Backbone:
C-alpha cells in the first residue's frame, strides 16, 4: 500500500483493555471532527454493546473510503472471550496485543500516519503468561528500537523520563552516563524532528533532594548527570541542570524551556498529572513511528457507565496528527 496522503492522514486508535474504559472513550470519537481520518481498532460487537441505546453508527474500515461525519470507523479484530465491563479476563490478553500488532503493521507500511493507544492492563496480560511491561517497551521491541523515551505533555509541559517503570530503590543504579546521554539525544532529536523546535531548551532534573547539595545528599549529580550535560552542551545542545526537582517546575524556572527531563517516574509525572490529568498526552520518543496515548489507566470502575472522560484521548489524537504532519514535512 502506498504512503498515507498528507492531506488526509489516517490515525489508528487501539481500543485497549476491553473490560476497561478504552471502548467507551473510543465511541466518543464520533462526536468530534479531526483533521484526519480516525480508525478505531476493536471488536465491532464490543463497541456496539458498549454503545447501548445511544444510536451510535459504526462503519467498517475500508482503506480507500472514509466514513461519513458522525459515524465511527472501525477496523474489526475479534475478541477471544465475552467481556463484562469492569471484569478482567486473561483470555483476552492476546486480543489486546493483536490490536497493537495490527496498528503497528499499518504504521510501518504507511497505511496509518500515527498510532494512538487507549489504556491496557499490564497485570492481566502477565496473568495470561505473556511478559508485558507496557506499550512503550512492547513497541520498542517490535520495531527493533534499542532505546525509547517516555514523555507526557499537557498544560504547557513536556516531561520526559530518564527511567520509567522501576522500583524507586532501583533508580539510582539505572542512572548511568551512557543511558542518560542516549535519553537526552533522543529527546533533543524528536523535539527537532517531530515537534519542529529548531533549538530546544531542555531542563534536566537532579536525582537527589536539592540536586545533591554539592554531594552531601548524593553524588549522582556530580558523577553522572552534570558530566553528561557538559558533554552535550559542548556539542551545542541547550541544556540546563542538574536542577533541584522541587523548584524545576516553578513558573520562573520553566519560562523559555521546551521540555523537562525527570530522573524517575513520579518525580516528573506527579507534577504533569496534577497540571493536566484530564487532557495530558503520553508520547513515545525514539520510535520510527508516531505514537501517542492517553495519560490514564483502564478505570475498570467506570467501564460501561457512560461516565468516562474522553478528553485525554481527544488530546492524544490531536497531538498525533500534529506530530505526523511535522515529521512528514521534516523528511
Residues:
Amino acid at each position: 500500500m502506498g504512503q498515507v496522503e498528507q492531506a488526509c492522514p489516517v490515525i489508528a486508535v487501539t481500543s485497549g483493555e476491553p473490560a476497561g474504559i478504552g471502548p467507551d472513550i473510543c465511541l466518543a470519537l464520533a462526536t468530534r471532527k479531526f483533521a484526519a481520518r480516525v480508525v478505531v481498532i476493536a471488536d465491532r460487537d464490543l463497541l456496539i454493546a458498549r454503545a447501548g441505546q445511544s444510536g451510535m453508527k459504526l462503519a467498517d474500515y475500508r482503506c480507500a473510503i472514509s466514513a461519513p461525519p458522525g459515524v465511527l470507523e472501525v477496523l474489526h479484530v475479534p475478541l477471544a472471550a465475552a467481556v463484562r465491563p469492569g471484569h478482567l479476563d486473561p483470555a483476552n490478553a492476546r486480543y489486546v496485543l493483536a490490536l497493537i500488532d495490527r496498528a503497528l503493521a499499518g504504521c510501518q507500511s504507511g497505511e496509518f500516519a500515527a498510532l494512538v493507544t487507549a489504556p491496557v492492563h499490564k497485570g492481566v496480560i502477565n496473568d495470561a503468561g505473556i511478559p508485558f511491561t507496557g506499550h512503550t517497551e512492547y513497541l520498542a521491541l517490535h520495531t527493533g528500537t534499542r532505546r525509547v523515551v517516555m514523555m507526557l505533555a499537557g498544560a504547557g509541559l513536556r516531561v520526559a523520563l530518564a527511567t520509567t517503570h522501576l522500583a524507586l530503590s532501583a533508580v539510582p543504579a539505572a542512572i548511568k552516563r551512557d543511558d542518560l546521554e542516549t535519553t537526552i539525544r533522543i529527546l533533543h532529536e524528536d523535539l527537532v524532528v517531530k515537534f519542529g523546535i529548531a533549538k530546544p531548551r531542555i531542563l534536566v532534573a537532579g536525582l537527589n533532594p536539592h540536586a545533591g547539595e554539592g554531594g552531601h545528599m548524593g553524588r549522582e549529580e556530580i558523577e553522572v548527570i552534570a558530566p553528561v550535560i557538559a558533554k552535550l552542551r559542548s556539542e551545542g545542545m541547550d541544556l540546563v541542570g542538574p536542577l533541584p526537582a522541587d523548584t524545576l517546575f516553578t513558573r520562573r524556572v520553566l519560562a523559555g524551556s521546551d521540555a523537562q527531563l525527570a530522573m524517575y517516574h513520579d518525580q516528573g509525572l506527579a507534577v504533569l498529572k496534577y497540571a493536566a490529568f484530564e487532557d495530558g498526552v503520553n508520547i513515545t520518543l525514539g520510535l520510527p513511528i508516531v505514537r501517542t496515548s492517553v495519560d490514564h489507566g483502564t478505570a475498570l470502575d467506570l467501564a460501561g457507565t457512560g461516565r468516562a472522560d474522553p478528553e485525554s484521548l481527544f488530546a492524544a489524537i490531536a497531538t498525533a496528527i500534529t506530530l505526523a504532519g511535522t515529521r512528514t514535512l521534516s523528511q
User: Anything to note?
Assistant: Confidence is low (pLDDT under 50) at residues 1-6. Residues 145 and 287 are 6 Å apart (CA to CA).
